[in-house]
């Protein structure tokens, strides 16, 4: 939508004509073929990336813009990934209640999903947050490693947990802060599939029970 900071944007496709019998690779988002130009990219050319650095699967959005209707941008440099508003429902621990708490908070501040992601990356840069695969997604030039939506979203979920944990209690409703902690904390599996449990107990905490 026009003016929506979380709307999907499209790159300009590089000028290229496929040679006769040229190799193609399948985008695993829209399942459409694109010319296989992964080798020139790896060799330091100006060709946009076509492959996730983590899972090694191929995606077309960074190359010429994925046309799948619900794709938010299936491949981009990590710092430029667009997650879209639909990610908010499961962003914190796959817990819809805690995710809504975070959504309500950033909405009250006028923050977009992109704003939240940028703030999380700033915290990583300053040493406040860490996440899995951090070394693989970071270079001397920043968070510019090509990564797919799925792998990038897993990292964003880890960072969003820390951001939710950092929200001051006085900035949250009493019904959120007055809940007792779940014994299993952030590792609880029940929070993902039993909404009443997610509402009743706080999961923004470490596990306190071992068996």
From TrEMBL:
GO molecular function, a single term: ubiquitin-protein transferase activity
Keywords: Cell cycle, Nucleus, Transferase, Ubl conjugation pathway
InterPro entries linked to this entry: CHFR_Znf-CRD, E3_ubiquitin-ligase_CHFR
Annotated ranges, domain E3 ubiquitin-protein ligase CHFR cysteine rich: 15-167
GO CC terms, sorted: nucleus
Key word Phosphoprotein present: no
GO biological process, one term: ubiquitin-dependent protein catabolic process
Keyword Transferase (UniProt): yes
Location in or out of the cell: Nucleus
Pfam family, one: zf-CRD
Coiled coil (residue ranges): none
Cross-referenced PANTHER family: E3 UBIQUITIN-PROTEIN LIGASE CHFR (PTHR16079:SF4), UBIQUITIN LIGASE PROTEIN CHFR (PTHR16079)
Listed name of the protein: E3 ubiquitin-protein ligase CHFR cysteine rich domain-containing protein
Organism: Candidula unifasciata
